[in-house]
Amino acid sequence: MLLCDRPELSLASANAKLLLAEGLASVLATGALADPAMESGERYRNPTEVQMSQLVLPCHMNHRGELSIGQLLKWIDTTACLSAERHAGCPCVTASVDDIYFEHTISVGQVVNIKAKVNRAFNSSMEVGIQVSYEDLCSGKQWNVCKAYATFVAHSKATAKMKLKPLAPQTEEEKTEYSIAAERRRMRLAHTDTIKDLLTSCTVRTERESGDCNTVVPVEQTRVESVELVLPPHANHQGNTFGGQIMAWMENVATIAASRLCRAHPTLKTIEMFHFRGPSQVGDRLLLKAIVNNAFKNSMEVGVCVEAYRQEMEVNRRHINSAFMTFVVLDQEGQPIILPMVKPDTGDGERRYREASARKKIRLDRKYIISCDQTKVPLSVPWDQSNKVYLSYNNVSALKTLVAKTNWGLATEIDKVRMYTLEEDKSLSFRIERTTNIDAKQAFFLLSDLRRRHEWDSFYASAEIVQQVDEDDVIYHVLSQVISQENKSQDFIILASRRKPCDEGDPYVVAFRSVTLPTHPPNPAYTRGETICSGFCIWQETAELTKVAYYNQATPGYLRYITTNIAGLSSDFSLTFKACERFLQKNKDDIAIRFQNL
Ligand code: COA
Ligand code: ADP
């Protein structure tokens, strides 16, 4: 068995151990890491990369004596915009900035280093990836401050919408970012609807989290309203207000609202997506409004909303931005203090109070998924309706990261079925591929339906749908034919997430990962198996030919199974893949498959 989505079984090929050693050798022999930097002997530099270094001066500080986040946001936006314009060759505007988590604060005298590069160009928009670190000039040490992704839209003089030239990623890191940028874009564009959907569908705890019950602050006391006049220094040469300037003004009013709750100097920890809904220009007045939406034990959420208007038309205010920021208050040891409880206003205040709780839950769930150590059992993460979009993103991006790796080494080839391996610090992966005569889309539909897997993979006994999450995500309960060491059949709860190509040249992707579901706890009749990351990548190579590749990632904890479980099945992978090919061929003209998937 090779094509099962379980590391312990999938890699359970007798000579996997040998193949792995060979695989590594072949990587070294072929020099598979095609880093253009190394080839030319010079340090490779992405052509869209822009760097900014700023010495933090007293004029950049906030009241806590740290670099003001508003100032940092201005520098981030400028660096990212220059990178976008370098690629686009014309002026660009900020459309959005994804969630930012700040890991460190920065003091006067330190140097902030910002690096930005375009990860991917879509039609008129581009994703720019930004890395922020700071440097202590005396010790020479560096620390990460945050990572951010911003989307810029190119504005040419022509009235027609611009079509940007595509990027050609070179290094492994660039290929990974390029591939996952499509996933982030998908999440970003669905963000408003996702949040709306969640807030209406999910049941949020309405009881107060314990805070300092001795002090209850009515949120009304934290309300801030402030106006800014957009002057030429706040705008670009076309008169559009800089996105960074707007974010800095937003951070300013949010900090005032947070301070009014805690009567201390708060520290900004996270910002949730800035979406620039419409432009503003020199001469506009910007009305900024902020209020604390909810206070939890150690953190509070402040919401900010921005409207723009011309002096002569104050009644016609345009809503141009809203954002939510999380603050903490740190004591002298840097530990968060317990915050007062809040009393929301009736109406909008109650709604925002509940919505802030929902956003906090989503944030914590995401943090948990990110922090999961993929080398430790259990590998599964809990599936939850409120985090379905993120889990789907996480599933597909893990597979795309594996696909973009450059260190794959050809381990063996039998009947045109090739097996590659990839050995890394904490994981061991393999990929099996073959080119076949079928339409890629048809292969995609056939392989993404796990209920049909038993037709070609002898290790699948059955798979039934537990939940059709949406058009592209399905949770299955899979029963395997394999008997575990406890002499029981194995079962799995698997989230299957599929993606059609975002652009020409992109593959079709079907990703699998284990999740836990409260409705399907482990059953004593079975041994619960897990898969961390596996799936298919399908490339249309010519009008007739399609390359189908299967990927599976295992962790060291499972290697013992791999090398001891099954002996002498060296051609197993090719037999399974051949069975897969026969299945695809048999169903290649089945029109019903397409109709089912429309
Ligand atoms: N996040 C990321 N990208 C977004 C987005 C969002 N929330 N909303 C739209 N976009 C992208 C679209 O995907 C599209 O990209 P594509 O061409 O690569 O497919 C692009 O923006 C244009 O979308 P379109 O639907 O044609 O236009 P729109 O009416 O949604 O306008 C903006 C998008 C960004 C141009 C418009 O909202 C705007 O002008 N915002 C203000 C920009 C600004 O002033 N920024 C701050 C000061 S520089
Ligand atoms: P919502 O009300 O759905 O949260 P908005 O975009 O209207 O979305 O506002 C975003 C946030 O801005 C609100 O959650 C709130 O914290 C803050 N806000 C909105 N209106 C006001 C106001 N009039 N005064 C103070 N803060 C406001």
UniProtKB/TrEMBL annotation:
Example of a GO cellular component annotation carried by this entry: cytosol
BP terms from Gene Ontology: acyl-CoA metabolic process; fatty acid metabolic process
Domain START: 408-562
Compartment(s) where it occurs, according to its Swiss-Prot or TrEMBL record: Cytoplasm; Mitochondrion matrix
UniProt-listed Enzyme Commission number(s): 3.1.2.2
InterPro entries: Cytosol_ACT (IPR040170), HOTDOG_ACOT (IPR033120), HotDog_dom_sf (IPR029069), START-like_dom_sf (IPR023393), START_lipid-bd_dom (IPR002913), Thioestr_dom (IPR006683)
Name the record gives this protein: Acyl-coenzyme A thioesterase 11
